[in-house]
Structures are given as structure tokens and as C-alpha cells.
Design brief:
Shape of chain A: globular
Oligomer: heterodimer
Strand content of chain A: 25-35%
Structural class of chain B: mainly alpha
Radius of gyration of chain B: 17 Å
Number of strands of chain A: 25
Strand content of chain B: under 5%
Distance between the termini of chain A: 75 Å
Number of strands of chain B: 0
Order of helices and strands of chain B: HHHHH
Largest sheet of chain A: 9 strands, antiparallel
Radius of gyration of chain A: 21 Å
Distance between the termini of chain B: 21 Å
Helix content of chain A: 10-25%
Number of domains of chain A: 1
Largest interface: A-B, 34 and 28 residues
């Protein structure tokens, strides 16, 4: 074979390998689902790589082992399981005492008031939440499975868990690193970076901000962390805005849909979702979001996954206008949610 | 060591091709960034620099300078390295804008750097042009 032909053939083969490998990387990153751990029927099932069922233990045991404290009337039901089945039965049991409207919910142990406000040319949805037990503040994984590219709409996860109110979580599945602790179970202990700020929700429902470089996930779990969300950054700490307009990265400066969660006082929280990327609602920068949350009186507030993921669900409906697929109004599938369950 | 007019012409053509690829990469970056809702990625923005600085500029310099042109084997290896780095940069930009990561991206940088090194070694160790073609 002539050298010219040989090199052309080599180049063609190399280009084919490069294209195929790139397609595989894209599929692996965005499409191919990989489940590592499933949470079904009150049990946490760890799947080994060999296909064996692996370790199985109950969520109730996990809760007990983690030393979760509960103070309210619904604590027993909530501790028993986080599954939709139990939540639904708990909901049915307390249905007679529930007072609900399009913008409020009150069952004696959980009180939620939903309000919509205009702020800097942006529609912002604020859910003011008071609970009598820390157990009411929960998280759930899409398809009850911890893994990569395991996604479901926020509303779908919320419905299957009997949530009254829900917002999207940290979309842990889009990252390969960053602590993941949910409902007292450690799923991922690989740190994203030393400066990565995480929101820690303790077993008593208190909020705190940590940096992954300063403490390990196992230490957090040992100290009673019930939920750890790894997105960020922290917006408000000790009542002071903790994001800086000068040091923000570009994506933080830009107006976009946002989701945030904050603690005003013990067992008194706010969940905030800002619409964006539309003519009606431009969205907020992180600093603007932090200012808004500070005005609500939060002591601690944390930024969750935003953009097309930003979704708020209340009483069976998506209340905001999620913009997945650019500026198209539709709900994006996400890895996880934060919700108020009864 | 000598170079012919045809060698210089070949390098000019190569420089033009790399320049066109650079322009395409720049347009691709601009369009992608335009639809990324203000999320910027240095990898995406600098995508066009790989074919420009590693392809168009060296090819153009070789077309005007009295230096030996690389052999077809050295050129092939070098092209492959530039392609790996450019695709790696593009992919890194896409992932960064989306807000995710992939452990496979580092393979592009490693393979690209290794191929560039191999191409350069082939060129310098052979003392320039061995044979044309490819």
C-alpha cells in the first residue's frame, strides 16, 4: 500500500475511534442509567457489581442508628419509612384534620403558606413552612434509586412520596463527586473539592454549612447529619449574605431560574423558587437571591440546582414555570427532591 | 537540508485548512455560548485556539520559512493530537456548561498531548522531511 493511502486509512480509522469514543462519553454522561443503590419498601438495597442483592437493611434501623431526634406527633409514622406507601397512609390517617387551600396547608403538625411575589422583574415563589417535627423535612431520590442518570420529574417523585410541598434538590447525579447523605444514609463520600460548600440538615432539623475539605462525609454522618446537599454556594450564613458579587463566577452573576432553601428559626423554613429565562420573569443572580432570602429573615440559606431544574410542587401541582430545554416551559427530570411530607 | 516549492505550497494549503477549522470552531463556540444562558466555559471559548495555534500558525510559518517540512507520518501524528485536544476541549466545555463532569475527559488531554509529543519527536529526530504524501 502506498504511504499516502496508508496514512489516509490511519486517519480515517483514528477519526472513527475518536467519534465513537466521544459518543460513548456523551451517552455515559447524559443517558446511560446506572443504579448503585435502591431504596424500596422501607429497605435500602445495595447492589453489588456482580449482580448480587448485596447488603440489605431497613431505613428505620438506619434512622435509629443515626440517632435521629423527633419531637412531633407524626414522628413515629415518619421515622418508620420514607416511602410513598407509608406517607400516603400517614396522610390518610391525618386527613380529617387537614385544612388546605390553593396557597396553604395546615394539618396541625405541618403548616405551609405559599406566596408569589415580584422581585427584580422576576416571579418568586415562597413557601413558608413550620413543622412540629424535623421528620417532616425529607429528601427523596428519583425512582427511589441512588445512581447516575436516574431521573424523574420533581412532581412525579413528590407524588410517589406523598409530598405536600417539594422543590428540586442538588441533582447529585450530574456529578461524580460531592457528599450525598439522604435520610440518614451515606451514599457518596467522595469530596468534590476542598472549597465545596454543602448544606447539612441535622437530625434535629437544624441547618449548617460545611466545606467538604474540612470534614469527611462519614464524620458528618457520625455527628448526626440527616441530609447533606452538595450544590451551593451557601447564600446566607448567620443572617449575613455569604456570596460576593466580585468573586462570583459568571454563571452565578447571570440571571437564571433559581431554587433555594433556608432556615428562619428552629423547625421554621422557607423554600424559594424563582422563574427565569422568559420575558415575564428574567431570573435572579445568586447575590440577588441571597438578598431576597435575607429579607425573609433566614439565618441560613443554600442554593440548590437551578436553571431548567428549578421546580416547586405544592398540593399536587407544579406552581412555578420550569424552563427545561432552553426557554420552553416544561418540567425537567432531576435526580432528587427536598420535600415536606406528612 | 532543502525544501521544495511544492512542500511550501502543501503547508500553505494545510494552514488554510486549519484556519477554516479554527473559524468553524469559533462559530460553534459562539453559537453554543449564545444558548447557554450566560454560563461560560473557558474550554468552549478557547476551542478555536487548538487548530489555530497548533495547526494554522505552525503550518503558515513553515510555508514561509526555510525549514524542513514534516514527513507525512509526523504530520498525521500531529493532526491526530490536535484533533484529540480540540474534541477534548469541546467536550469539556459542553460538560462544564451543563454543570457535570466525566472521568473520561482526561483521556483526550493525555492522548492529545502524547500524539503531539510523538509528532514533534518524529519531526525533530528525523531532521525534517523524509517523504511526502498523506
Amino acid at each position: 500500500m502506498r504511504p499516502g493511502k496508508r496514512y489516509r486509512l490511519w486517519g480515517t480509522l483514528y477519526a472513527a475511534v475518536l467519534i465513537l469514543f466521544t459518543v460513548y462519553v456523551l451517552l455515559d454522561t447524559f443517558v446511560i442509567p446506572r443504579s448503585y443503590t435502591s431504596v424500596k419498601d422501607g429497605e435500602i438495597r445495595t447492589e453489588s457489581s456482580g449482580g448480587d442483592a448485596g447488603i440489605t437493611f431497613s431505613a428505620a434501623d438506619a434512622a435509629e442508628d443515626s440517632g435521629r431526634q423527633s419531637t412531633g406527633e407524626t414522628s413515629d409514622a415518619a421515622e418508620a419509612s420514607d416511602t410513598g406507601k407509608t406517607a400516603a397512609s400517614a396522610s390518610a390517617a391525618s386527613a380529617s384534620a387537614v385544612t388546605e387551600t390553593d396557597t396553604s396547608y395546615d394539618d396541625g403538625s405541618v403548616s405551609i403558606t405559599l406566596s408569589t411575589t415580584r422581585y427584580l422583574n422576576t416571579t418568586v415563589y415562597v413557601a413558608d413552612i413550620t413543622v412540629s417535627s424535623a421528620d417532616a423535612l425529607k429528601t427523596a431520590l428519583a425512582k427511589d434509586t441512588y445512581g447516575k442518570n436516574i431521573t424523574e420529574k420533581t412532581s412525579s417523585i413528590a407524588e410517589s412520596h406523598g409530598a405536600v410541598l417539594a422543590v428540586n434538590g442538588d441533582y447529585y447525579g450530574a456529578q461524580n463527586r460531592g457528599y450525598v447523605i439522604r435520610n440518614g444514609t451515606l451514599y457518596r463520600e467522595a469530596a468534590a473539592s476542598a472549597d465545596q460548600e454543602d448544606l447539612v440538615i441535622g437530625s434535629d432539623g437544624s441547618f449548617s454549612i460545611i466545606k467538604e475539605g474540612e470534614i469527611t462525609a462519614q464524620e458528618l454522618l457520625d455527628q448526626g447529619a440527616w441530609q447533606v446537599l452538595s450544590f451551593g454556594p451557601a447564600l446566607v450564613e448567620d443572617g449575613e449574605i455569604s456570596v460576593d458579587t466580585d468573586t462570583e463566577v459568571d454563571k452565578a452573576k447571570t440571571s437564571n431560574p433559581r431554587t433555594a432553601i433556608g432556615e428562619i428559626a428552629p423547625l421554621h423554613y422557607v423554600m424559594v423558587v424563582a422563574d427565569g429565562r422568559t420575558e415575564e420573569s428574567s431570573g435572579l443572580s445568586l447575590y440577588e437571591l441571597a438578598e431576597f432570602l435575607q429579607s425573609l429573615g433566614v439565618s441560613t440559606a443554600y442554593n440548590l440546582d437551578g436553571g431548567g431544574s428549578s421546580t416547586m410542587y405544592f398540593n399536587g401541582n407544579v406552581v412555578n414555570h420550569p424552563t427545561s430545554g432552553g426557554d420552553t416551559i416544561s418540567e425537567r427530570k432531576v435526580s432528587d427532591i427536598v420535600y415536606i411530607g406528612v | 537540508m532543502s525544501t521544495s516549492a511544492s512542500d511550501h505550497r502543501r503547508m500553505r494549503i494545510l494552514a488554510r485548512r486549519y484556519l477554516l477549522i479554527s473559524i468553524f470552531c469559533l462559530l460553534f463556540s459562539c453559537v453554543y455560548e449564545f444558548f447557554s444562558h450566560g454560563v461560560r466555559s473557558g474550554f468552549m471559548i478557547s476551542l478555536f485556539l487548538f487548530p489555530l495555534l497548533l495547526g494554522a500558525v505552525p503550518s503558515f510559518l513553515m510555508s514561509i520559512a526555510f525549514v524542513p517540512v514534516p514527513s507525512a507520518a509526523a504530520r498525521c501524528t500531529w493532526h491526530a493530537g490536535v484533533a484529540a485536544l480540540a474534541v477534548g476541549s469541546c467536550l469539556s466545555g459542553i460538560l462544564e456548561i451543563y454543570g457535570t463532569t466525566s472521568p473520561y475527559v482526561r483521556i483526550y488531554w493525555a492522548v492529545g498531548a502524547a500524539l503531539l509529543l510523538a509528532g514533534a519527536l518524529r519531526y525533530f529526530l528525523s531532521g525534517g522531511r523524509h517523504r511526502s504524501g498523506g
